[in-house]
Amino acid sequence: MGPQHPSTHGVFRIVLELDGEVVVKATPVPGYLHRGIEKLAEARTYTQVIPYTDRMDYLASMLMNWGYVAAVEKLMGIEEEIPERAQYIRVITGELSRIASHMIATGDYAGNIGGLTGFTYTFRDRERIMDMFEMVCGSRMTVSYFRIGGVAADLPDEFFPACRQFISDLPSMCDEYDGLITGNEIFQARTKHVGIITPEDGINYGITGPSLRGSGIAYDLRKVRPYSVYDRFDFEVPLGERGDCFDRFSCRIKEMRQSARIIGQALDNLPDGPILAKVPKVIKPPAGDAYAEIESSKGVLGCYVVSDGSPKPYRVHFRRPSFINLGMLGKMCEGWKIADVIAILGSIDIVLGEVDC
Asked: Does the N terminus or the C terminus of the chain have fewer Cβ atoms within 10 A?
């Protein structure tokens, strides 16, 4: 079946077995975009691996950077040495990255259902985040901004008014998405009560992120196991009620609003000081292993790093939320019609760079 979703234009395949128009079995076939990032990491220094993480979930590259450097910092035993200013900057840029990812998810999903206008609205607004990233690090999508021990550069002066204006405007942007997409009766007919993930199935399949929270389970690492300085911020974890496509979609719009709250608090309390811990130029962690997790835009991103004491990692492995969330697609599609498969796949919000890393 396909192409329908942007990821089904050659890099992802779904094989459907049908009884008329009803799906009897759906088999996801990933692997066509595989670039061997985990293997390539074995021939790079610890710092040289960072640009590869940008290419995983390239729609939320700040968060991909964070998941990797957090694991290396744990391996080196320097988690407590990360400067406070760097921690706050990570939160600000990470939440901007989450908003940018959710904007793509929102607009792209509307396009999947047939409402192309929503796509143009969210891309218009996301450009403002890309402009801010360009101010911070010179790049818009593949940022390579995080460093082992902190971040690459301090936030420039022009970033602050742009960011404050953006988070001030964000609620009205989300209102616009709700008016144009969420409240549309055709959109609701295509998504409500379709592709339900029960709380039990969500847990059993290891699903995380908005795809799990849409089923009413309040599992967000930023709350249940706070890392960095997230325990200092006041925000809510939006939840769905039915676990259907509509709930997963609406959770992402609500999460954008919460991310703006976090960014505002971080800007208000941003401390002065250094942005990078004192780490050696040639990073050689002691032999051993470490695993760290962060809450990415798609769910829990985990990174497992093994060191043999050399300047290059012996092994790097990522727990990719898109890949794991995709594991339930077959069950979600069974009993629904061909047109519903489009709505169900889009509601998971996968990105193939992360699935096939």
From this structure: N
Q: Is residue 1 part of a domain?
A: no
pLDDT in tens, the chain (357 residues): 877 777 677 888 899 999 999 999 999 999 888 889 999 999 999 999 999 999 999 999 999 999 999 999 999 999 999 999 999 999 999 999 999 999 999 999 999 898 889 999 999 999 999 999 999 999 999 999 999 999 999 999 999 999 999 999 999 999 999 999 999 999 999 999 999 999 999 999 999 999 999 999 999 999 999 999 999 999 999 999 999 999 999 999 999 999 999 999 999 999 999 999 999 999 999 999 999 999 999 999 999 999 999 999 999 999 999 999 999 999 999 999 999 999 999 999 999 999 998
Query: Which two structure tokens, joined as six digits, stand for 49?
Result: 């691996």
Q: Check whether the bond before 3 is cis (ω within 30° of 0).
A: yes
Alpha carbons 77 and 184: distance in angstroms, whole number: 51
Domain hosting residue 183, numbered range: 6-355
Q: Is residue 84 part of a domain?
A: yes
Measured between alpha carbons, how far is 86 from 250 in angstroms, rounded to an integer?
Answer: 31
Number of domains composing the chain? 1
Q: What is the CATH number of the domain that holds 104?
A: 1.10.645.10
Bridge partners of 303, per DSSP, are: 292, 318
DSSP secondary structure, 22-70, as one string: EEEEEEEE--TT---HHHHGGGS-TGGGHHHHHTTSTTSHHHHHHHHHH
Task: Tell me, yes or no, whether 266 lies in a domain.
Answer: yes
For residues 157 and 268, what is the distance between their CA atoms, to the nearest angstrom? 15
- Collect all residues with Cβ–Cβ distance below 8 Å to 261 and sequence separation of at least 6: 233, 234, 235
Half-sphere exposure of 140 (CA within 13 A, CB side): 6
Query: How far apart (Å, rounded) are the C-alpha atoms in residues 352 and 191?
Result: 23
Residue 100 within a domain: yes
* CA gap 292, 148 in Å, rounded: 13
